[in-house]
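Internal tracking record. Fields below are filled automatically when a chain is submitted to the structure queue. Please do not edit lines marked as system-generated. If the sequence contains nonstandard residues, flag them in the REMARKS field before resubmitting.
Queue: standard
Priority: normal
Entity type: single polypeptide chain
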Amino acid sequence: MSMNKGIAISRQALSKVPEVTLLFWIIKILATTLGETGGDAVSMSLKLGYLVGSAIFSVIFIVAVFTQVTAKEFHPFLYWATIVATTTVGTTLADFADRSLGIGYAGGATILFALLMASLFVWHRTLGSVAVNTVNSPKVETFYWVTIMFSQTLGTALGDWTADTAGLGYTGGMVVFSVMLTIIALAYYRTDISRTVIFWAAFILTRPLGAVVGDFLDKPVSQGGLELSRYSASAILLVLMLLCIFMFKQKPAEQAH
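SYSTEM-GENERATED OUTPUT FOLLOWS
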């Protein structure tokens, strides 16, 4: 084995985020939908409220991120557990801000979008890149997970705003975000737009898609939903996620040289 090849393999081994493939996006949508139904199950079905739910999921989020950042190599189950932790805390935090604090969906989405852009800006100014293939150190990973948490919280607010305030309903919201993601996919294959920009655009938009799908599954029929049990919906989504992770091997993202 040549020295250069050995260095490349060593760098790839340092990556603790998965390679971005179609499987990545399938699991991401399942995870974000699970975050919606799971977050609602705790805050609504268990009647703990958005504040208590946010406190519970914030602790889980902190523990998951700490474990992920201090891990020595890529572990698919740990990575996706951390993603689910970000999306559940994002669900309850967005609902708390939008509903309990009375900021409203538009106001909450605006604030969260500003926080997300600020996170990406500081990350880029500090380390020179926000590309996924540079996530190879605790410092970069910290920026990565903070940015993801803001994007997941923003996605909840965007999904609720589209379905409720804009009056499109859950099926309308699913169509809107599916079309937007299709446009991004076409841009990936047909244009030279920065792959980093395309990744973060897709990453952000999969969250509101998951939010409206989750609401469609568990909201009352009178509101346009299927009125499934939040616990049952969450269990089904979790099983589908686990099957994807078990059946299809994920490789760590190849690092920038």
